[in-house]
């Protein structure tokens, strides 16, 4: 469905869900930001103390993969909700940031490097 669903479709789904529950009052920038971080931490927790092979095992196991997908969906929910509530065009934001990163991480300097742009 990623190939046929738009970001607008997803924003509308999240908006409908939240408005049916009268949650706008709780979805401030701070609270939505906290939600993103909390859910990202729960995703990271799935991989804590595991080596790369063990991490791949989790992703190949249907039960643990489902948990990982749930955490990723929770993160996505908060991102979409923040963008929907505060009129942020995710395409424009990501495109703009990608252009900035192209300047910060030129291919000839960044390829194969795991360094911050200030260290290249």
Helices and strands, with pairings:
Layout: H1 7-20, H2 29-45, H3 52-60, H4 62-85, H5 90-104, H6 107-110
Helix pairs in contact: 1-4, 2-4
The counted number of beta strands is: 0
Query: What share of residues are in beta strands?
Result: under 5%
CATH superfamily of the largest domain: MazG-like
What is the CATH class name of the largest domain? Mainly Alpha
Overall domain count? 2
**Which H/E pattern describes the elements?**
HHHHHH
Main sheet properties: none
**Globular, elongated, flat, extended or rod-shaped: what is the shape?**
globular
CATH architecture of the largest domain: Orthogonal Bundle
For the termini, the CA-CA separation is 38 Å
Structural class, from secondary structure content?
Answer: mainly alpha
SS element count, helices: 6
Q: Which fold name is given in CATH as the topology of the largest domain?
A: Helix Hairpins
Instruction: Work out the radius of gyration.
Output: 18 Å
Helical content class = 55-70%
> Which stretches are poorly predicted, pLDDT < 50 over at least 5 residues?
none
